[in-house]
Amino acid sequence: MLTELLKQAVEQRRDELIALTQELIRVPTINPPGDCYLDLCQRLGDRLESRGFMVELVRAEGALADSAAHPRWNLVARFQGQEPGDCLHFNSHHDVVETGHGWTKDPFGGELKDGRIYGRGACDMKGGLAASVIAAEALIATVEDSGQAFRGSIEISATADEESGGYGGVAYLAEQGYFSPDRVQHVIIPEPLNKDRICLGHRGVWWAEIETKGRIAHGSMPFLGTCAVRHMGAVLAEIETHLLPLLASKSTAMPVVPESAKQSTLNINSIHGGEAEPEEGYTGFPSPCVPDRCRIIIDRRFLIEESLEEVKAEISALMERVRVQRPDFEYEIKPLHEVQPSMTPQDAPVVEAVADAIQQVMGLEPAFVVSPGTYDQKHIDRIGKLKNCIAYGPGILELAHQPDEWVGVDDMVQSAQVMAIAAAQLLGLDPEPPSSL
Questions:
Q1: What's the structural domain count of the chain?
Q2: Which of 95, 137, 163, 381 is an active site residue?
């Protein structure tokens, strides 16, 4: 049976999977600013090219954050079978967030200990990228060894900037047609949503900058000015008193995890008021001024039952309530980023294939979940107009962006087996019919 052969083929590549994951972790693709993107793409491209893939390195010229110092490089590799058929695309982002503090391991060491590989990006999502590569390689080799003609094609991409919106990665590629339905029919994104769960989509997001405006004056005579920080304090009080309880009362039928994320949420991402922060090395006092500007960045996550217009109207109404209460209150709302909620139907072909493969590998019926935060499915859906897309991969979601981030080797092996079996089914290579769940 092809299924058993695929499981064995992945297991036989366990050491190779470990080594590839470690190699990827050791390339510090930190975003921002966007370090070492080309290095990682070239390393992975050389490997895939030697295994029969056609490799493209695509720079997202002109995309957000692309620059001469930090070009936004992406890898797209395609294995074309001998017979026509569907294309299955495995998409992983190669960028990682900053390390932060609190590590007891080398963040870019790729240390293997007690069945876990440690490092920034191990879980989110270089372990998933490595698992998809091994899955594809195992499937191609197994089909060739069996004497079957390989039908359809497999694509693997390693893309930029998912951690900062994906505009130099999947969004750019989607705009160039790489995710159009006539080119790609199925997409699996190996984000760390746990090996026995299938992620169907994500909540929506609206980021905005809110600025309160005042009038500068000498700090010894604040009555001659208008304090923008005090204005912002009133805005924050209104958020605490009225908006947050309102959001907590909203819930969704989407299977969002964790449970608390089934509500609408708002995070105040940053705040700054008054004079600019002093440059490093300056040890003097700031000058005595009434601050005439204060800014916050809000991160509003919303549900499929809400409209984006409703989300924006809530903030506008809040600001108007504060304006009525405070003399000389001026403000500006600057939209920064917006994403509509996305959810793939549970009966989509890629969902059913991965669900069946999880059952064959683990003997479990998978859980169907929705992510609390967005990932690159948003661009595949909105720009590529491709709905047959899910997130599935190894790694525990709660470990993402944490110190001592890790991915389990057994989890990667099982996830790679699932990916290989699902790929065989989607490409019409697996003679076994899908079981009913």
A1: 2
A2: 95
